[in-house]
Design goal:
Elements (H helix, E strand, L loop, with lengths): L1 E11 L19 E10 L2 E7 L10 E4 L3 E5 L1 E3 L11 H8 L4 H6 L3 H11 L2 H17 L2 E7 L6 H17 L3 E9 L10 H18 L5 E6 L6 H13 L3 E6 L7 H7 L4 E4 L5 H8 L4 E4 L1 H7 L6 H6 L5 E2 L13 H12 L3 H8 L1 H5 L18 E6 L5 H4 L6 E6 L2 E2 L4
Parallel strand pairs: 1-4, 1-5, 6-7, 7-8, 8-9, 9-10, 10-11, 11-12, 12-13
Antiparallel strand pairs: 1-2, 2-3, 5-14, 14-15, 15-16
Bound molecules: N-(iminomethyl)-L-glutamic acid (NIG) and fe (iii) ion (FE).
The site of N-(iminomethyl)-L-glutamic acid has 13 residues, from helix 3.
């Protein structure tokens, strides 16, 4: 099936194949062709350019895009989309004065999600997660990373990873699985943390890697969760089994997770709400991509990642939704892009770069998605009629997406 999109008001993020991500200072520029065409064949982008150069070839369908923009679908590089139940009671408790930490100390938070997930059947967990995935695909997400981490015991972690695998087999969105073994210490292991960590290292990681259920290894490296030495042990064990590190660091405290993860050649370090100058210097010297999660800052009322400081140091930045029941019950990347502009001082160009090509890099997919590039997946957002692409972050709360193509197929055709 060959489709020609013609008279595109603006075709955004047209990039050469050699570009894997965009560095901090270059993020100010977003490539754009005015009055453009785009041709896709089956699941791939096969040609694009300005209308004057549009070839007259046989196609199966012509779509007149007039007054609308086309851009690559969002690349959401950090989510916990597989979970059992929302945690709106904890949300109300926070409004009434409890902190995220106080709720966690009372057995809420991650432990609460784990208890529910352990009891959920595979089929129900799959159906609930599939609905969330469908929702975010309609909101323009074409590639997504999904973590385990609400199992806190091996069978439940495997259940989560099997759900992610089934989603990946059944949906067109590109899905990258992450094993988040050390997300919190289960109650049964209080005073036996070393035992929990050795089980992760000696049993869980080998089993998950043997079954090829994950591509990445993650740890919640944070005060009261997993410290630097514990994080190092788990990341190194993951690397030994071929898993690439992508780590939760500096959400509430800077405890040395950034220099550790850059030294361990982590693909990404995520959160970074608290970031000091030594952390910035460590990132600068590395190939690690920082990932900001503005929904989490918004929802928990905590500081936003200092995006300007990161980009002004010429460090690339990705943004992602962190979709999860505790700190970000939304996977809407349009809102993430909006918050990046209004709360982190990113320009619309910077935010779109961070949510497309840099997001693709942040899950090891920049050869496949994240830009309008010949040979890449036809994962596309077609906007409604809008005056400029700045309308996307400007009109927060409104959906300006008219149609989404994932893997060359329109979601409206289903
Ligand atoms: O990225 N910080 C660790 N994990 C999640 C939240 C976990 C939860 O509250 O369920 C996050 O914010
Ligand atoms: Fe997270």
């Amino acid at each position: 099936m060959k489709i020609l999109f013609k008279n595109i008001k603006g075709l955004l993020q047209t990039l050469d194949h050699s570009i894997e991500y965009i560095e901090g200072k270059q993020m100010k520029k977003l490539s754009k062709l005015n009055n453009a065409f785009l041709i896709i064949q089956d699941d791939q982008i096969i040609d694009y350019g300005i209308m004057n150069d549009c070839p007259s070839i046989d196609v199966d369908k012509v779509i007149d895009v007039k007054e609308r923009f086309i851009m690559p679908a969002w690349c959401d590089s950090h989510t916990h989309l597989v979970f059992s139940e929302p945690r709106e009671k904890e949300f109300v408790d926070r409004i009434l004065g409890l902190s995220y930490h106080q709720i966690a100390k009372k057995g809420g938070g991650i432990l609460n999600s784990a208890r529910k997930l352990q009891q959920e059947t595979f089929e129900n967990l799959y159906l609930k997660s599939a609905l969330r995935l469908e929702e975010v695909m309609k909101l323009g997400t074409g590639a997504i990373e999904i973590k385990s981490g609400y199992g806190l015991e091996l069978p439940a972690e495997i259940k989560m990873l099997e759900v992610i695998k089934k989603l990946s087999n059944n949906y067109d969105a590109l899905i990258q699985p992450t094993f988040l073994a050390a997300h919190a210490l289960p109650e049964e292991y209080i005073n036996k943390k070393d035992l929990f960590i050795s089980e992760i290292i000696d049993q869980w990681i080998p089993e998950v890697s043997e079954r090829k259920l994950a591509k990445f290894i993650d740890v919640f490296c944070e005060k009261d969760y997993f410290d630097i030495d514990e994080t190092r042990l788990i990341i190194n064990a993951g690397k030994k089994h071929g898993l690439i590190p992508k780590v939760h660091v500096n959400q509430f405290n800077s405890i040395g997770g950034v220099p550790l993860c850059t030294e361990l050649e982590s693909l990404t370090i995520d959160h970074l709400e608290i970031l000091n100058d030594q952390d910035i210097n460590a990132i600068k010297k590395s190939n690690t991509m920082p990932v900001a999660l503005p929904n989490c800052s918004f929802f928990l009322n905590i500081p936003y990642t200092p995006a300007r400081k990161i980009m002004d140091n010429n460090i690339p930045l990705a943004i992602a939704s962190d979709y999860n029941p505790g700190s970000s019950p939304s996977g809407n990347m349009n809102f993430v892009v909006s918050l990046a502009c209004t709360k982190m001082g990113m320009s619309p160009e910077e935010a779109i770069n961070a949510a497309t090509i840099n997001g693709a890099y942040a899950m090891g997919l920049s050869k496949e998605v994240g830009s309008i590039t010949i040979g890449k997946k036809a994962n596309l957002i077609i906007t409604k009629k809008i005056s400029s692409y700045s309308m996307i972050p400007y009109s927060f709360g409104s959906n300006l997406i008219e149609e989404v193509y994932i893997n060359g197929k329109s979601l409206l055709d289903k």
